């Protein structure tokens, strides 16, 4: 079987949820009474998603008319406008780097054909804030720097931080078998699979998200019970021996979410809010329990006329659909959160610098790592304990050439949050277009490695990184369009 390259799995960011519910206007007034959801035709020729959401006034929850009767959904709790649709930077920010960032942002919405993009860079105490494009395809309102997005698997950084704090509180240990902690889940090889394995994606457990692709297309607002999702996933054979190799699995983080709730006798949403969102004033970050948004947001887009096998052609931007609304019970602890660039800059520094746990536990979280397995592309990196190391200027692997972070790809949205501690640089990129058929070369992992991170290097190193990127992109392109190119990477199933 030909196995195409999956850049999404390089950064362990993919949730691959397929939702078809179109988003409402960015700001709803109190006089708005309905939100029409347009008809969308899927690749098999079937039409679905047609419905009208009834609103009982701004700030109340929405109720979906049949066929979506499984839940109620809010839109926005706060009607708050910002005038931040232009590029700004703090006084003293390096002007040459600013020019390069400005150029990259423009290319993201032109060459890479994204409806909108938000790029934030903090160097020391100076910040550059960039925004380009529009909130929603076919409309004029520009994207704004303060807009929230679905952050996908960056949610895992919050859940992992919570798990680490519970370990420090003595609730359980990193190497406790998950079967002993959660016997009611009947986890296969639960006597061997540990909390450490779940955090580092080495459990070997089947990734449940791959089973939900068509379900999301047909029933985008259906509410699921995480326990039932797990029960089905845990019946599948293990992908690898526990602890043996890195194999990305959202299943592990759903289990960790349930472990948090059992241990704290609270919800994972409430614990994240109490320990992190409130404690660190992450005021634009939420852990929603329904498909709505609390603040102004970028609309998410995807092309549902594009088959996942893009050898048949998948022109970017050809027929984008607004898929802003997404039922959150499936991504849940693996990827349901919302945030914006400013909050992610702050959170990236807090989480990735180890401010939430002891120095010893933080050091363990960045040293217990396994290779991502993409050296053949000239991409060098590791998955550690729910954080990813990349070495863009390999063979230099010292602290100054190590970036650590996480990606977040969820239907309609494509994000990264990375930091170089030695250089005191944090980068966040949000784009409002993502689908499993999206060209790998136009996704955040490739853009970050070969467009964004070279900006901060010396001319010699920058040129070498760009040259490596050109070669990697050619290989990626051949892997997509040439059936003779074979890749047998561990994480193909994540795609």
CATH superfamily: DD-peptidase/beta-lactamase superfamily
Helices and strands: which structural class?
alpha+beta
C-alpha Rg (nearest Å): 21 Å
| Side-by-side strand order of the widest sheet | 7-9-8-19-18-17-16-15-14
CATH architecture: 3-Layer(aba) Sandwich
Mean pLDDT: 79
What spatial form do the alpha-carbon principal axes imply?
globular
In terms of DSSP E residues, the strand content is 15-25%
CATH topology: Beta-lactamase
Helix residue percentage? 25-40%
Q: Provide a count of the helices.
A: 14
Distance between the termini: 15 Å
- How many structurally independent domains? 1
CATH class: Alpha Beta
Give the biggest sheet.
9 strands, antiparallel
Count of β-strands = 19
Low-confidence stretches: 1-83, 307-317, 486-495
């Amino acid at each position: 079987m030909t196995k195409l390259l999956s850049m999404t799995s390089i950064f362990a960011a993919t949730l691959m949820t397929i939702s078809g519910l179109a988003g409402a206007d960015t700001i709803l007034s109190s006089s708005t009474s309905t939100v029409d959801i347009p008809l969308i035709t899927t690749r098999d020729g079937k039409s679905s998603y047609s419905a009208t959401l009834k609103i009982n006034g701004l700030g109340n929850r929405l109720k979906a008319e049949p066929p979506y009767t499984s839940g109620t959904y809010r839109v926005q709790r706060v009607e708050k406008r910002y005038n931040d649709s232009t590029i700004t930077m703090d006084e003293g920010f390096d002007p040459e780097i600013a020019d390069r960032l400005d150029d990259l942002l423009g290319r993201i919405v032109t060459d890479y054909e994204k409806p909108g993009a938000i790029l934030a860079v903090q160097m020391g105490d100076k910040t550059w804030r960039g925004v380009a494009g529009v909130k929603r395809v076919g409309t004029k309102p520009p994207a704004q720097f303060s807009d929230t997005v679905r952050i996908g698997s960056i949610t895992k950084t919050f859940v992992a931080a919570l798990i680490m704090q519970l370990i420090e509180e003595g609730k359980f240990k990193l190497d406790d078998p998950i079967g002993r902690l959660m016997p009611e889940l009947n986890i296969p090889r639960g006597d061997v699979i540990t909390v450490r394995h779940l955090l580092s994606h080495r459990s070997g457990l089947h990734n449940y998200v791959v089973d939900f692709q068509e379900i999301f297309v047909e029933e985008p607002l259906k509410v699921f019970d995480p326990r039932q999702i797990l029960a089905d996933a845990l019946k599948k054979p293990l992908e690898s021996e526990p602890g043996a190799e890195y194999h990305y699995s959202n299943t592990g983080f759903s289990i960790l979410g349930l472990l948090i709730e059992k241990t704290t006798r609270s919800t994972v949403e409430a614990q994240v809010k109490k320990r992190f969102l409130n404690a660190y004033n992450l005021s634009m970050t939420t852990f929603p329990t329904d498909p709505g948004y609390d603040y102004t947001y970028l609309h998410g887009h995807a092309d549902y006329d594009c088959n996942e096998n893009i050898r048949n052609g998948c022109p970017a931007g050809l027929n984008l659909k607004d898929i802003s609304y997404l039922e959150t019970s499936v991504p849940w602890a693996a990827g349901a959160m919302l945030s914006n660039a400013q909050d992610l800059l702050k959170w990236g520094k807090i989480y990735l610098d180890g401010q939430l746990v002891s120095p010893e536990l933080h050091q363990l979280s960045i040293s217990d790592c396994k290779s991502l397995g993409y050296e053949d592309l000239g991409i060098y990196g590791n998955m550690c304990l729910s954080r990813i190391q990349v070495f863009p200027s390999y063979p230099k692997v010292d602290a100054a050439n190590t970036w650590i972070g996480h990606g977040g790809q969820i239907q309609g949205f494509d994000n990264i949050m990375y930091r170089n501690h030695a250089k005191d640089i944090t980068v966040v990129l949000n784009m409002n277009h993502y689908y499993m058929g999206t060209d790998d070369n136009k996704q955040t992992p490739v853009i970050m490695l070969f467009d964004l991170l070279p900006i901060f290097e010396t001319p010699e190193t920058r040129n070498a990184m760009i040259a490596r990127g050109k070669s990697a992109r050619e290989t990626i392109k051949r892997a997509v369009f040439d059936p003779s190119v074979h890749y047998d990477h561990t994480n193909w199933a994540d795609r």
